[in-house]
Amino acid sequence: MATVNIRRDVDDKFYRYKMPVLLTKIEGRGNGIKTVIPNMEDVARALARPPAYPTKFFGCELGAQTSMNNDRYIVNGAHTADRLRELLDTFIDKFVLCANCKNPETELVITGKGNNEDIHRDCKACGAQTGLDMRHKLITYILKNPPKKKEKGGKKGKKSSGMTAEANVGGPIVFDKTEDGSGEDDEGSPAGTPGQAAVPTTGTDIDAALGRTDPILGDPDAAEAITKKLQTVDLGANGNGNGNGHGGDDDEDDDAAGSPYAVLGIWLQENRDAPDADIIAKIKEVDIVGKHKVLVEIGEKLFTDDVDKELKKRIALLQVLVTSEKHQKSLLGGLERLLALSPTSDALLAAGTTPKVLMTLYQADILDEEVVQQWGTHVSKKYVDKDKSKKVRKSADAFLKWLDEAEESDDE
């Protein structure tokens, strides 16, 4: 993809800060005409900002409605690419570049509470903290939808702030461009492009090496230390030297006998007590490193009817494996299969297992709020039949209601 300097007033071809050229696509006609921005996530990642921010900014400046459903970023009306690129330059100047050194290595930091909230840019290059125009309409949206906070233990590339998996796990990352939208659910939800995280080159028992105890959410310091150490394990390329993982797309039938996913699933069922390192080594052995369907097998085959308790022992593993929204959706799909197809499914759902599972993953920062809410409101037959899918989501009502109430409380 063609790239341009983030500061387009800089002509230096060796300028280190680049971003993809913003692309647009006009769809519809008449009153339904709209402008789709197909590579908004890539542009936003380069700017270290959530893709919703520049999209909303376009809407504010153009007086147009915007929508950000199913990873599609849309501005109502027909707008030329040149016009949106000009507005993107304005967004970069107002919300990205440091006002002191004009460097884009900044983070948005929200301080204060209630009516005294303030936002400033924290520059990692010069250390300056420069304010924003708090009168701009986008400010209200940012305050209601603050950027994800950095975790001390690192987050494996799923943050919208632009931090890549490579920066967090300490190993080279290959972005697998062969994965297309086949991971869509029935509602046509295209998945993001996952970073292909690597795996240990040996089956060393990480648990023993780290002196690991089960990471319990009630002991965040211990869990954080374990996760941080797990991420420092050499996640180098696989044995063939290219680090590309399983040679085909992630669209291979994971239920087909002999497929790497089926092999992994059988192994997981037979080795549920295996340490994290052995699971990672097995993923490497069957050559499906970084593939989102790995998480379907993990969710369905690694756990049993005691999944709400077992999950707490696998927090560090899941935090390493789940690196994108697509991975999150696949993990939810695997857990949906587990809960819906278990012989004791009715008892599991009635006992409140679904809310407990979602709360564990949410508090461990493995699932994002938006992903869970979308999953909870879109019944799908991708993983189980629609009746079972509806039943699982119905059993999650308590957690989904809690999320809604928490969001309303934050807004107030």
UniProtKB/TrEMBL annotation:
**What keywords does the record list, in alphabetical order?**
GTP-binding, Initiation factor, Nucleotide-binding, Protein biosynthesis
SMART domains, per this entry? eIF2B_5 (SM00653), eIF5C (SM00515)
Which terms does the record give in the GO molecular function aspect?
A: eukaryotic initiation factor eIF2 binding; GDP-dissociation inhibitor activity; GTP binding; translation initiation factor activity
Q: Does the keyword Cytoplasm apply?
A: no
Region Disordered: start and end of each range? 143-219, 234-256
- Say which domain of life the source belongs to: Eukaryota
Q: Name one Pfam family in it.
A: W2
Provide a GO CC annotation, any one. Answer: cytosol
Kindly list the residue ranges recorded as spanning the membrane: none
Q: Matching InterPro entries, A to Z? A: ARM-type_fold (IPR016024), IF2/IF5 (IPR045196), Transl_init_fac_IF2/IF5_dom (IPR002735), Transl_init_fac_IF2/IF5_N (IPR016189), Transl_init_fac_IF2/IF5_Zn-bd (IPR016190), W2_domain (IPR003307)
For whether the record's keyword set contains Metal-binding, the answer is: no
Domain (W2): give its ranges: 250-412
Q: What is this protein called?
A: Putative translation initiation factor eIF5
